[in-house]
Amino acid sequence: QVQLVESGGGLVQAGGSLRLSCAASGRTFSSYAMGWFRQAPGKERELLAGISRSGANTYYADSVKGRFTVSRDNAKNTVYLQITSLKPEDTAVYYCAAEASDSIFYIPIAGPDEYDYWGQGTQVTVSS
Question: What is the DSSP string of the chain?
């Protein structure tokens, strides 16, 4: 089992940047593919980005390509989400999630149901 704690959210002006962090504890972090999701009020939780166990493979939703960058540091048991050119529509609670994987290249991209472990979320609010 793995425990996840997100940080780095806050209030930021449109056009600004944020780096979200997700610290993991428990079982070996490098055993897990990781995903970043967000959920805005009244909307479904959506997958934004994913990264394989090794970090060699990444995935981005079309809506965030070019503005979001996912990375991980297995030595620090942490996954990051760098967000640039923030827009008011990026306002949401951002979650990281983990899924155990035998493959160092696999990224679950079908949706939230593929992930077994979740953090509590961090609020990102973008003002116009």
Answer: -EEEEEE--EEEETT--EEEEEEEEES-GGGEEEEEEEE-TTS--EEEEEE-TTSS-EEE-TTTTTTEEEEEETTTTEEEEEE-S--GGG-EEEEEEEEE-S-SS----S-GGG--EE---EEEEEE-
* C-alpha distance from residue 19 to each of 27, 53, 71, 106 (Å): 24, 20, 11, 24
Sequential pLDDT tens for the chain (128 residues): 899 999 999 999 999 999 999 999 976 999 999 999 999 999 999 999 999 999 999 999 999 999 999 999 999 999 999 999 999 999 999 999 999 999 999 999 989 999 999 999 999 999 99
Q: Is 25 exposed, middle or buried (CB count within 10 Å of its CB: 0-12, 13-18, 19+)?
A: exposed
